[in-house]
Write a structure and sequence with these properties.
Elements: H1 3-14, E1 20-24, H2 27-32, E2 40-43, H3 45-50, H4 55-69, E3 74-75
Parallel strand pairs: 1-2, 2-3
Length: about 80
């Protein structure tokens, strides 16, 4: 997610348009999609595993933060 992408998510979410945060490779990028709230967050788990990151732990961390925030944000995955 870029700054421009986050700005677009902010505008679109205020208009009720569903958005997703994708190309997520590190935890902080996923967090940036929580506020403003994207509709979906899509980490590329295959690529994460390729670089030695345990994708399941990252997804669990996202789920915990999302649940704590009270946001209605769905986690999907890509690059399986």
């Amino acid at each position: 997610m870029t700054e421009e992408g986050l700005a677009a998510v902010n505008v679109l979410s205020k208009e009720g348009i569903e958005t997703n945060g994708t190309l997520i490779f590190i935890f902080s990028l996923g967090l940036s999609a929580v506020q403003p709230p994207a509709t979906h967050i899509i980490p590329f788990i295959g690529r994460l595993e390729d670089i030695g990151t345990r994708a399941s732990a990252l997804i669990e961390d996202y789920r915990n933060v999302i649940d704590f925030s009270g946001k209605d944000l769905e986690i999907s995955v890509a690059s399986i």
